Input
Amino acid sequence: MPIEVPMKALNLLSLIFVLGGALAPASSRAAEWLTDLPKAQAQARAENKSLLVNFTGSDWCGWCIRLKKEVFSAPDFATYAEKNLVLVEIDFPRHKAQSPALKAANEALSGKYRIEGFPTVVLLNGQGGPLGRLSYEPGGSKPFIRQVAQLTGRQSDPTPVAAMKKAETTLRGAAAKRNEAMPGDEPPLFNGATPAPAQQFTELVLKGISGPKTRRLALINNQTLSSGESAAVKLGNRQVKVRCVEIRESSVLVAVEGEARPREIKMRQRL
Output
């Protein structure tokens, strides 16, 4: 015998389904990827965002598949990208069909950006200027997002540092109000200790080397460079242009603006 459901109950259920879809968190949506780089650059300029260009072999490259699964499919990456990035996939599949025009365009971009292995993630500004490169590294989405934020200057929301500073400001404000109410009775916040300043560099420091042998990446101060790439590196109150000439096993050879010869920077041993 069929069960009759009152019309009011049906209307209520319909409303719940509609509101449920409308109120679904943004992080549940997958990140949107474009395949047309010029179109993506125009969008990045219009929306004041950076470009993340993923050169990948989506259906055969194991590291590419892991990067997509562990990072690009993560909800926190989708949330960060929606606010800060325009995503572009330049794919070189072996089994998926592509139009001749798309194949030719992707090959041209591979030559333009000197892609030597997959995955290679190229970060650009809205005008197409290089900001840095990344590849697959274990650890998931959070360290990857931190590296992207560092290279683009578009911090994740909130960053651990920003959250700590906000919390510290709130605590200091509360302590000041208590001191006004009870002068002399309240000890200074954190026993009067000042917070540690942000890391600054007065010289070039090799902080790390990563990536496969075919595509090595060097982290110099706060810039990630591959062989042949250049970047402006901050030293104290000034910036110098540095070009990465060669990445070795535990050192890099760099050409520094204003210096006649390249110099070698060695990895510092950790104590």
Notes: The longest helix spans residues 160-181. The mean pLDDT is 79. The two ends are 78 Å apart (CA to CA).
